[in-house]
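Q: I'm writing up a methods section and want to include an example of the input and output format. Could you take the sequence below and give the corresponding predicted structure tokens, formatted cleanly so I can copy it straight into the document?
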Amino acid sequence: MPSVIGPSERVLKYIAKRGLTKKYEKQIVLLSENLQHPSLNVELIEPKSDKIYSFRIDKQFRGFFIFISEKNSIKIFDANDHYH
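A: Here is the clean output for your methods example:
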């Protein structure tokens, strides 16, 4: 199971401002336990060569991460409106 390196303060403020903190925290637990959990809906986004993945926070918002294999971790670097 990979460890999760949290996002920047800017991303945490974005999440909090939209009332997503509890949903985000729940999804982070799932992300650290099982990347294939159905409620995460993890996707490799285009261009695939960048190796950037997204996961569902809720139906409207997604978080974005990369794998850091030498640390066996996931680095979350952004969250935004999926339909924006």
